[in-house]
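FAQ: What does a ligand-bound record look like?

Like this one, built around iron/sulfur cluster:
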Amino acid sequence: MSPKTLYDKIWDAHVVHESDDGTCLLYIDRHLVHEVTSPQAFEGLRMAGRTVRAPEKTIAVPDHNVPTDPTRLQGIRDEMSRIQVDTLRQNAKDFGVEMYDVDDVRQGIVHIIGPEQGWTQPGMTIVCGDSHTATHGAFGALAHGIGTSEVEHVLATQTLIQKKSKNMLVRVEGELAPGVTAKDITLTIIGRTGTAGGTGHVIEYAGSAIRALSMEGRMTVCNMAIEGGARAGLIAPDEKTYAYVKGRPHAPSDADWDKAVEYWESLKSDEGAQYDRIVEIDASEIAPVVTWGTSPEDVLPITAAVPSPDDFAGGKVAAAKRSLDYMGLTPGQKLSDIEIDTVFIGSCTNGRIEDLREVAKIMEGRRVKDGIRAMIVPGSGLVRAMAEEEGIAAKLQEAGFEWRMAGCSMCLGMNPDQLSPGERCASTSNRNFEGRQGYKGRTHLMSPAMAAAAAVTGRLTDVRDLA
Ligand SMILES: CC(C)[C@H](C(=O)O)[C@@H](O)C(=O)O
Ligand code: SF4
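The answer part, i.e. the structure of the complex:
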């Protein structure tokens, strides 16, 4: 048998049928559903008189539209958002799908609660009507973002029609320098390969720097695979993965656990497996980075200066000009001189407990600069509860942060947490597109540590320089 990649193995284990043109029907192990991309899918089922094929493998949670202040418990004021969340509630009830509602401590961003509740496990196929489903790949699960018509197909059949992607390997070897985190790794990769670098591929992240990351860090890396153009991101499971999954509400237990681990042990790319593309990165060369433009590939070390359109070629010249204009930046300006108005810590990229601990560590003995709006939005009710129990929440509030309830929040402008026109934000989220965080809002992507440093000084700041 020829050597297989991790992607090949999970793929092969889930093919139900293959057509002559290579189109496959894949069995889906887990289906995560949120309020934005599911209403028409459930409506389609209803009109066709169908049921949900495997409600026990389906879980619903509202996250994008929910306000993150406690008033949401009295009902959502915005009509569109209220209708979407009410519709999810009704659909979950009608079709027998479990839902973590806004008053449930398990509620949170769909990609945070999947792993947290043990729904996400190695070797599984996982889908969600959301592009950042790639996050779950950190467990060695094949996790695809899908569209609403596919959501309907999966609800009805528990299968997905897919063509196999190519294999891409991103190997990050060596040790990270102090102040450099998983977010810097994933942004640096996209800076290097571009937002189209992974097109048509599933990326497997490997190498000693990836192995050294916690599960939280690995989720941060896989979360942004989609920003690098890939169909999914994957990391082979290991002892850290098993330790994270073990004991979670939906994880296998007792004899099932042993059987599961035995299978998970086989989920590694074989020696000699072929990749269509290989990218190698030296971890020791990665710096704390920020984005300067309106694409996640616009990445530079914080020690650099704002580029000039002349630094680019082809279509990128005009794109850079437009970006700089939108971002209100001048070529040659030092990145660390850029003043910010807002700091957002949260999202499915960096809203986990480890991220909040990192921020708390940086804020030790420091305060949010006067006049800066800084908010922390835990990725789930459980992350929030854990941070409160550990005393992190109180410390961060004392340091000047707002402490919110779980949701996508300011990661995208679908709920009340938004930037005003022209406002500039140091953000731990994953997209810096025009208007992403609010009309004419300006986003700089970075790690939680770097966002905390920006909160202290009121400008983009090298976390290594904090006095
Ligand atoms: C609203 C949803 C469909 C969207 C996605 O697919 O990613 C959102 O989560 C995002 O991050 O832009
Ligand atoms: S936190 Fe942001 S990126 Fe993640 S699912 Fe929500 S809107 Fe999408």
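Follow-up question: can I read anything off the structure? Yes, for example: The radius of gyration is 21 Å.
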